Amino acid sequence: MGKGGPRPAEAKKSAPALRSLASVFMHADVADVVLMVLGLVGAMGDGMSTPVMLFITSRIFNDLGSGPGLLQEFSSKINENARNLVFLALGNWLMAFLEGYCWARTAERQASRMRERYLRAVLRQDVEYFDLKVGSTSEVITSVSNDSLVVQDVLSEKVPNFVMNCSMFLGSYAVGFALLWHLTLVALPSVLLLIIPGFMYGRILIGLARRIREQYTRPGAIAEQAVSSVRTVYSFVAERSTMAQFSAALQESARLGVKQGLAKGVAIGSNGITFAIWAFNVWYGSRLVMYHGYQGGTVFAVSAAIVVGGLALGSGLSNVKYFSEASSAAERVQEVILRVPKIDSESSAGDELANVAGEVEFKNVEFCYPSRPETPIFVSFNLRVPAGRTVALVGGSGSGKSTVIALLERFYDPSAGEVTLDGVDIRRLRLKWLRAQMGLVSQEPALFATSIRENILFGKEDATGEEIVAAAKAANAHNFISQLPQGYDTQASYLPHQPTTFAAGVCMQSFRWLHFSACFCVHTSTNNA
Hints:
18 helices, four-stranded antiparallel sheet
């Protein structure tokens, strides 16, 4: 059997790693590829500038050390090296600009595209996904903000920093071997000592920082619950116990913070190894000058290249941990983006009825919520609502009143039986078209952080100003809206939610056939309407 090829287990392990890293760049388009290529060139050029500077510096030191044998020749060499440093400065400025601008620009573009696709994918999911997969809305918000910020930070800073440091390492040791390979070869093992601080910072410190962030979620949750339920806290006189729970939750974070401080002190203090390596290079370099005729400027430049290259490699490798975190974040986002829900609101499949009368019927429907499969809500449920009829569903909490609306809106599908609209199973109808025929005012209405006018327009996007006013009058909301200083342009977050949301529902009536108001408390005048 041959021994040259990779083992199957290693190949399987490396393939997912490459795919995971590629997920960070999955939202790049052609323009982003161009920006990343230019940024890559800039990062490599930025990293190579230091080794080139050391190479020119070695020539300057050697010229200065040899003394002005011929004044004209000495001046010519000094002017040439000074001119080379000016060209190097201009080139380094250009490369650094490409590195900073291109990577920051493409990171912003890709992160924005990721956020847009993720939110579109979340809004595409069915209600079952939020019941089973998502513990709270904070998880969705966290993925939209934190995960995309992790990827953006890696693309804008960590990737160019890694490329720049690797380029500096390779360039420094290339200059070292080109100028004085004896000293470079002897000092090469010392690069391991220079990598240690970077690895310590990359593995221990970043790991502790992640644990601290995770630990802070517990006291954060306690504070969030206390503030959101502050009336309950006051009524039970639970301020002292809440503070005790919050303080106890912070103790673990404080303990991890002490560990982080100790690890950071050891990591930063270990940079003193640099001076030990310098001492060895100076001692060995002096012997090369005395017994082998090498020049002092060359020894200095090579010694500096060895130290700078080793530190650059250690700093570059510390970014590998960030790559892993960004890959995990990108995969979490991509998992949601690629998920196709059972009830797909973006699907164009399905029929559209030419004429809708509005007759609704539930035939032998059986249903239980996905989060509580052991608790049946409907068993052989039958209901027929003729077209044009107003029907009120009355019952205790948990009797299935809201479930009727949820099944009709196709938030869920029944496990048995069927729900029909004008005799057609609603599962055969195009979902967006079906929901466009219905208007719903929920029991606990929510308003968007915008004006009253725009909130009402959610009921009908192309409604005219007269239709908006008519809808508000039908919801008995026009009078109090007109008395506001800014009228319909007032921000809705400062207003009673029920009347304004009801106006949005009324605005649907001009073109929707089915209207639901799942509410137990409306405006007093509306209650008599």
